[in-house]
Amino acid sequence: MNKFLIGAIAATLVATPSLAASWRTELFSRLDTDTSGELTVSELEQTGCHVDRKLFNYADADRNSALNNREFFNNRNLFSRCK
């Protein structure tokens, strides 16, 4: 029974990949207060994230002092309490 439920849930998620994309889009939009498409340290801090600048710089792969969607979600575990 448990294997069936897990399989059904997995099949639903595979069939509707937009569910995963939608929460990411909504979170990123909520954090991106200036709607620039990138998150700065001040934007993250203003929205309640704890930001260690060394970790932010590590996540900022292109070194432009802001995180794009991919940089943020690839390193989201580095930022705590992001709502």
Overview of the structural elements:
By secondary structure, the protein is mainly alpha-helical. It has one domain (2-78): Orthogonal Bundle (Recoverin, domain 1). The protein contains 5 helices and no strands. It has helices at 2-15, 18-31, 41-46, 53-59, 69-74. The longest helix is centred in the N-terminal third of the chain and has 14 residues, at 2-15. The mean pLDDT is 81.
Blueprint of the fold:
Elements: H1 2-15, H2 18-31, H3 41-46, H4 53-59, H5 69-74
Element pattern in H and E: HHHHH
User: Quick one: biggest sheet?
Assistant: none
Instruction: Domain count, please report it.
Output: 1
Q: What's the CATH superfamily, by name?
A: EF-hand
Task: Summarize the amount of helix as a percent range.
Answer: 55-70%
Number of helices: 5
For this structure, what is the CATH class? Mainly Alpha
Distance between the termini: 35 Å
- Here the CATH topology equals Recoverin, domain 1
Offer a concise description of the structure.
The chain has 83 residues and is mainly alpha-helical. It has helices at 2-15, 18-31, 41-46, 53-59, 69-74.
Which characteristics define this entry?
Recoverin, domain 1, 83 residues, mainly alpha, 5 helices
